[in-house]
């Protein structure tokens, strides 16, 4: 991925800082009526604050930074990525590219070498996300928020291959979005499908 245009580091009350790198690679994301950087930062913080306690990590005396990169792109680019990495020649809403798992061992390793722990990259497709929001009668802001939570959960090793995994992941999404004042994204969409990795 190209060097992101914007970085923002934020302390968490969980024993580490988080550095979010945002890159807006497609001009169609401009002038969408809300602050994309603020929403992304808020969603990422809320998701980590909700999930990290369940990971049962010992975070005392850590000086580690956890990094996530977000790229806001187009259907054209995400289709190329989907074809290259998933052998699916179609655009999709969000793709997640996990790098390093958020585990005790990896945190210790990062702290030992005074390096950040890179969780991975998330790529969002403007046309698909806005089309889905309209079809599902949701605001674009709420649907983007949902896709961000979904993508971050994939970086944290959640998946939806089996019904049991899907149910657990969806419940986390519902709970995190509720904390942000966003309704259950699945209640009227029994046939919701995503295409991330």
Q: Which descriptors apply to this entry?
A:
single chain; 197 residues; alpha/beta; Collagenase (Catalytic Domain); 5-stranded mixed β-sheet; 5 strands; 41% helix; 19% strand; globular; disordered N terminus
What can you tell me about this protein's structure?
- The protein starts with 5 loop residues before the first strand and ends in an 18-residue tail after the last helix.
- The model is unreliable at 1-5 (pLDDT under 50).
- The chain has helices at residues 36-51, 75-86, 104-112, 126-135, 140-155, 163-179; strands at 6-11, 17-24, 65-73, 94-98, 117-125.
- The protein has a five-stranded mixed beta sheet, with helices on both faces.
- 31% of the residues are buried.
- The chain contains six helices and five strands.
- The protein is an alpha/beta fold and 197 residues long.
- β1 (6-11) and β2 form a beta hairpin.
- The protein has a single domain (6-179), classed as Metalloproteases ("zincins"), catalytic domain (Collagenase (Catalytic Domain), 3-Layer(aba) Sandwich), CATH 3.40.390.30.
- The protein is globular and about 45 Å long.
């Amino acid at each position: 991925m190209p060097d992101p245009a914007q970085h923002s580091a934020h302390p968490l009350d969980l024993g580490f800082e988080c550095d979010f790198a945002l890159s807006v690679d497609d001009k169609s994301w401009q002038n969408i009526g809300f602050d994309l950087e603020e929403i992304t930062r808020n969603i990422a913080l809320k998701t980590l604050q909700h999930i990290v306690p369940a990971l049962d990590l010992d975070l005392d005396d850590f000086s580690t930074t956890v990094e996530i990169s977000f790229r806001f792109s187009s259907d054209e680019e995400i289709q190329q990525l989907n074809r290259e990495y998933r052998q699916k020649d179609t655009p999709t809403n969000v793709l997640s590219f996990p790098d390093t798992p958020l585990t005790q061992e990896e945190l210790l390793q990062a702290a030992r070498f005074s390096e950040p722990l890179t969780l991975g990259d998330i790529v969002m497709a403007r046309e698909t996300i806005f089309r889905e929001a309209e079809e599902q009668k949701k605001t674009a802001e709420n649907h983007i928020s949902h896709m961000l939570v979904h993508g971050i959960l994939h970086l944290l090793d959640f998946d939806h291959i089996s019904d049991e995994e899907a149910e657990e992941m969806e419940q986390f999404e519902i709970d995190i979005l509720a904390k942000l004042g966003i309704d259950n994204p699945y209640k009227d969409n029994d046939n919701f499908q995503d295409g991330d990795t």
